[in-house]
Amino acid sequence: MNHLATRPIASYPTYAEAERAVDYLSDQGFPVRRVAIIGHDVRLVEQVVGRLNYGRAALHGAAAGAVPGALIGWIFGLLDWLNPVVAGVLLALYGLIFGAIVGAVLGLITYALQGGRRDFASVSTMQPSLYEVVAEEEVADEAARLIARPDGGRSTSESENDRH
Fold it and tell me: Contact at 8 Å (CB) between 38 and 132?
C-alpha cells in the first residue's frame, strides 16, 4: 500500500484473527495487496527469563560472539585461492573459537560494569492491544462486505467446529 487513503474495515484483539480475515479476503479473490494490518496501542513487554550471574553472562557473550566469529573466519577462508574448502572450514572453526572467547570476555566485562543493577536476563517484545485491518478507500466497501459475511475471516476448520 502506497500513500493512498485507507479506511478501517475490521478490528481484532489478536494478530491471528486479523491474519485470518485477510486470508479469507484472499480466498475470495479480493486484491489483498490493497489491504494492511495495523497494530495499535503498542506496548513493550519484557519477559524475565532468568537470573544473570558471571557464568551466564560469559555464556551469553560466548554464544553471541561465536556465530559472527565463525562467519568472518569462513569468509576469510574463502579468499584462500589454493585450498579454499579446507581453509574455509578451518578458519571458520578458529573464528568460532576466537569469537566465543572474545564474546565471553566482553559479556563478563559488561556484566561487571553494571554493578549488580541488572542481574537478570530478559526477552523484549512489542505487543499491540488491537489489530485493525484497513483497505484502500476504493475497495474498502467490498472488503467490509466480504468480512461481514457470517463466515468472513474465519478458517474452514473453525466454521465446521462451530456447527458441531
Answer: yes
**CB count, 10 Å around CB of 162?**
10
Radius of gyration (Cα) for the chain, nearest Å?
25
Alpha-carbon gap, residue 106 to 86, rounded angstroms: 30
Phi, psi of 151, rounded to the nearest 5 degrees: -105, 10
Q: Where are the alpha helices (DSSP H) in 7-113?
A: 15-27, 54-78, 84-113
Instruction: Please give the Cα distance from 14 to 131 (Å, whole number).
Output: 6
Q: What is the pLDDT of residues 87-121, one digit of tens each?
A: 777 888 888 999 999 999 998 898 888 887 878 88
pLDDT at position 85? 63
